[in-house]
Amino acid sequence: MISRDNGNTLTMVRDPSKYHSQTESLLTEEERNSEYHLVKWNNLAGLTDWGYQRLPNKSLKKCQLIEGAFDGTILPKNLRANRSLTVFRKAFCRPVTLQFVRDTVGKQGLQQYEYKFDDNMFGVGETNECFCYKNKCVKGFQSIAPCYYGMPITLSQPHYLNADEAILKTVNGMNPNVEQHGSSCIIQPLVGAPLSGNMKIQVNIDVGQTIGNHKTVPFNNMQVPLFWVEITTAEMPTLMIITLHMLCNALPIILEIIKYLLGLGGLAMISGSALYILLKTPVRIPGRISFSNSEYVPFPIISIPSDLLDKCEKRMSLK
């Protein structure tokens, strides 16, 4: 199944502000502005396996798109808590949703977001109506026949977890348990790095209605389980853990310290420069003041012409 991811062309966007989507009306603002989201798979924004290429734009539905999803290996930085992530792998034959569970601190001392498969991942409803093979949708099961040469294969969670109760009763020994059969994914939100993953998936045969073979009649219209697999990621290398610690824990503190040190350094330079100028600039104070200097007049002197004084005396005498 994994080989189905090979030999395909994947296009993702690094700078969303420079990319204009033709289907942006179907995407949320957060999906459009996320780094590293997929925009094309084999040069199309949707899956031809589900008839994307044959549909006019006005008939498109969001569930038919792979645009806005992620490939699961590269995720945007500074992930928002409570945000669900859509992941597309060709092996699933469709995008699937990872549901936010909680914000925790892992054993490595790193902040981490825990995700799980959406409980309604293979449910019946508007979000999955695009993936009803031959107009048939069964709660808890996803047909992958369009991607695998028409073979009647369906995917489900192990032991029919979150599947239709009626189908669960058709097979003995099914004991679905979230702890044992659920899938999870751990992501470091600051850098968008997947830290660990645990995916569990079950492969079934959709028998359908058989005719002419009495041995298959008891299995008519049943989802017959074949096997289920668990895929996990290995422990992260020590060097990678140290690098993430530096990026996520140490670097923000170092940057804050540098910011305050630069501020204090700038203030000290300004204060020191002002003090230096104040102390080093010479101030000259004259030793004595000479009143004989014609350029220095302590009181203003106004010269009055003598003829004007005579006129004033005459007027005073007449009075």
From TrEMBL:
Any single Pfam family the record assigns to this protein: CD36
Keywords carried by this UniProt record: Cell membrane, Glycoprotein, Membrane, Transmembrane, Transmembrane helix
Residue spans of biased composition, Polar residues class: 1-11
Main location: membrane
Subcellular location as annotated: Cell membrane
Ranges where the record places region Disordered: 1-24
Stated name of the protein: Uncharacterized protein
Membrane-spanning parts: 257-279
UniProt keyword Methyltransferase present: no
GO MF, one example: scavenger receptor activity
GO cellular component: cytoplasm; plasma membrane
UniProt key word Acetylation: no
